[in-house]
Amino acid sequence: MISQELTLIVAATGKMGIGRGGTLPWTGLKREMAYFARVTKRASPGVGNTNALIMGRKTWESIPPKFRPLKDRTNIVITRTSGLTAQGGNVTSSVEEAIEAVEKTEVTRAFVIGGAQIYKAALERKETKRILLTRVLSDFECDTFFPLQLDESGKSEGWERKSKEDLDRWVGEQVPEGVQEENGTKYRFEMWEKTES
């Protein structure tokens, strides 16, 4: 069981762009996607045997059907559409309800994986303590944005970028350091933590 803690996990451009036309604006970041899968699947010993992924309906629908639900994790889908079913996922109507659903299961960690409205609602909650950011350094045109600007300076509106050692310790692996590049897209792994309660 988690202790009411949420971690947001997101890939975003320097302007905090996260999507275009309902999909990711970049493609072919296989190592980045593998990082996402490893981090969100890794459960802490002795706590629970799985993690939870909290997402909005559009994020759920953007996952190709053959990959839904995202395996080896509890999938929780937030929607205001009554009667929606998410085969293999639990359906809730708010972030608060999603947190309650997480608390009723034996999970280690809860990750919020999008989209923008769900991120915004999660950022307003005291349970949100951490953001795992893949900072996409290449420029992409986006129409959807993460609702918090995380500046290159490392400090931003009650948030602070942590060291690589802190990131490694929290995710449980040696995260690749510095700028990574796949298919011409450059990016860097970061972890941010809330500085005020």
UniProtKB/TrEMBL annotation:
Pathway: Cofactor biosynthesis; tetrahydrofolate biosynthesis; 5,6,7,8-tetrahydrofolate from 7,8-dihydrofolate: step 1/1. One of its GO terms (biological process) is folic acid metabolic process. Belongs to the dihydrofolate reductase family. CDD domains: DHFR. Keywords: NADP, One-carbon metabolism, Oxidoreductase. PROSITE patterns: DHFR_1 (PS00075), DHFR_2 (PS51330). Transmembrane segments: none annotated. The lineage of its organism: Eukaryota, Fungi, Dikarya, Ascomycota, Pezizomycotina. GO terms for molecular function: dihydrofolate reductase activity; NADP binding. This is Dihydrofolate reductase. Coiled coil: none annotated. One of its GO terms (cellular component) is mitochondrion. InterPro entries: DHFR, DHFR-like_dom_sf, DHFR_CS, DHFR_dom. Residues 5-194 form the DHFR domain. The keyword Heme does not apply. The keyword Transcription regulation does not apply. Its EC number is 1.5.1.3.
